[in-house]
Design goal:
InterPro entries: IS1016-like_transposase (IPR053164), Tnp_ISXO2-like (IPR024445)
CATH superfamily of the domain at 155-279: Ribonuclease H-like superfamily/Ribonuclease H
Shape: elongated
Order of helices and strands: HHHEEEHHHEEEHEEHHH
Number of helices: 10
Structural class: alpha/beta
Strand content: 5-15%
CATH topology of the domain at 155-279: Nucleotidyltransferase, domain 5
CATH architecture of the domain at 155-279: 2-Layer Sandwich
Domain ISXO2-like transposase: 148-294
Number of strands: 8
Length: 317
């Protein structure tokens, strides 16, 4: 079974039911793939503890000195499964659903784990939040590792866009979140930052740009006044006037920001309507989008990628 699972490159619901449809299969999978520890060292004696698997998850115990009278340590302690009350097949099923962006209706319709017990809306929301939190930690760590975009002679297009919905009886007013986008010409490395406090002043935008874009880069923006001071920070600033009635898209010298603007359409299609004005998780969903773009570009299976995220975040050995 373990050999077959290790060869799976693309997971689907049939394979999930076959390989992760029972508690025993899930336990073996979690152990084999580093989601549950096989060993634990006693913090006092610095030697390996004994593993007992009679408990549904298993526990560690050390039978030397004062440690003999101490409580057993669950194998799930400090792992993705700590404190879990759901069955393991349901946990893996919800992970699969998050990885493939199932709606609640999809989750109920495709649930192979139990015919009689229906997952509650609160449980689904909680597990989607757990998965997203792990993705955010993973993505932000690796975003910092990737470093900055641009550099001398390279062009980075920058633009800000508002994510939200027009309010009835308020004309063109849009309530939502300002997001700063940056992308280098010839690259698919899109950088997104939610503007703190929903402000897009120079005091907010310039530090975000300096976080992601090397000095000496040719930066192309619109005429928003917050960008006027970019040359003071070592950037070569080129602008396009979107208010020009003759040509609002391309300046006379060929400057444009059409590439970053085209990416806004892709990003906004990703969002569910109820995420537009949710200040509690909007920034996290932006990071989730970037993670999904990365795995799509690298042609990775979403479920396998989520497993890699969880192994990284919980660092189970």
């Amino acid at each position: 079974m373990c050999r077959d699972v290790s060869l799976i490159q693309q997971w689907n619901l049939v394979k999930m039911a076959k390989y992760l449809g029972t508690h025993e299969l899930c336990m073996l999978f979690a152990e084999t793939h580093g989601l549950l520890p096989k060993t634990r060292v006693c913090a006092i004696h610095k030697t390996q503890m004994a593993l007992y698997k009679r408990h549904p998850v298993g526990y560690f115990k050390f039978s030397r000195g004062n440690c003999r009278t101490k409580s057993l340590i669950s194998r799930a302690a400090g792992t993705w499964f700590e404190g879990v009350k759901l069955s393991f097949p349901h946990v893996f099923y919800l992970m699969y659903c998050f990885a493939h962006r199932f709606t609640r209706e999809n989750i109920y319709r495709e649930d192979y784990t139990s015919v009689l017990k229906k997952l509650s809306s609160a449980t689904i929301s909680d597990w989607y939040s757990y998965c997203r939190e792990a993705v955010v930690i993973f993505q932000l760590d690796h975003q910092e590792f990737k470093g900055k975009i641009g550099g001398p002679g390279k062009v980075v297009q920058i633009d800000e866009s508002k994510f939200g919905k027009r309010k009835y009886n308020k004309g063109r007013r849009v309530e939502g979140h300002w997001v700063l986008g940056m992308i280098e010409d010839g690259s698919e490395d899109l950088r997104l930052e939610v503007c703190p406090d929903n402000i897009r002043s120079a005091e907010v935008l310039i530090p975000l740009i300096r976080k992601h874009v090397h000095e000496g880069t040719i930066v192309r923006t619109d005429f928003w006044r917050a960008y006027e001071c970019l040359p003071n920070y070592g950037y070569f600033h080129e602008k396009v006037n979107h208010s020009d009635p003759d040509n609002p898209f391309i300046a006379e010298d060929g400057t444009h920001t059409q590439r970053i603007e085209s990416h806004w359409r892709v990003v906004k299609r990703f969002f569910y309507k109820d995420n537009y004005n949710n200040p509690a998780n909007f920034a996290d969903v932006i990071v989730e989008f970037l993670w999904r773009q990365e795995i799509k570009k690298e042609k990775k299976d979403p479920f396998i990628s989520l497993l890699d995220v969880i192994k990284y975040v919980y660092n189970t050995k």
